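Sharing a chain and its predicted structure for anyone who wants a worked example. Both blocks are below, sequence first, tokens second.
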Amino acid sequence: MKDFEAAKEFFKDTVDPSLYFDSISAEIARNKLQEAIGNPAIPLMFIIGDPGVGKSHIMRVMHHATALKTTTVLIEHPFFDPRDLYKELYEARGMNFDKNKSQGEFLDDLFEAYVGTLCTIFIDEAQLLNNDQFEFIRILSDTKLFQFVLAMHKDEGIILLNKKQFKTRTKLVIEYGNLEENEILRYIQTLLMGHMHGDIALMFSKHEAKVIARYAKGNFRTIKKFLYTLMKLLDYAQKKSLSKYRKLNSCLLTMAALDIGLIDDK
């Protein structure tokens, strides 16, 4: 009996650094970030890409890796008040935070606390920040004490990079792309075999990867959602002894695509 129920858990729409997959795009991004993080000459880094390609995943992986060596802060949902970021920076240094202080007092405290160090601040979904917040980030990055890694949607990112706050500043821009067909197959087989589900991994071939790529258009989040649904269907078929659907076939793949809305059934 194949344990499809357990296998589906690895494809949940969550961000788990332990399930990191090194696609070509991810490897390029990771290598560039590893070289830039900790370098005060590169105070601003932008990871841009379409929704669901894996930006949040690489942010958490790099935050986890960087935190082992230096001070880092990860903001998963953009702050809407500078005091939210101040609080994170205070706590990262073990300092008590008093929300009633002025901005000048906050900055004086932080400059004293972080002098001689470089703190890397990761902000996900940064396209949601407003102009005042971006200006605040620019001011902090100009101190050479704080380095920012901002992940954002591609279209908004391109517009932002042309704004006066960032256009002439030293920065690293990384474009995060989709998975290729061969990477989809490698992702499925590497993940499943690595977690003792080799019997399920071997059900997939280049053909299934090609079909999944066509439906999901190479989008990492959509691929995970597709595979999660496919595991549920296979689990149901196995428990109900539906022999026709206990092996991968075009019908099962179409059912998975329909279930998550990749095909219009009207």
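Comments welcome. The chain has a mean pLDDT of 90.
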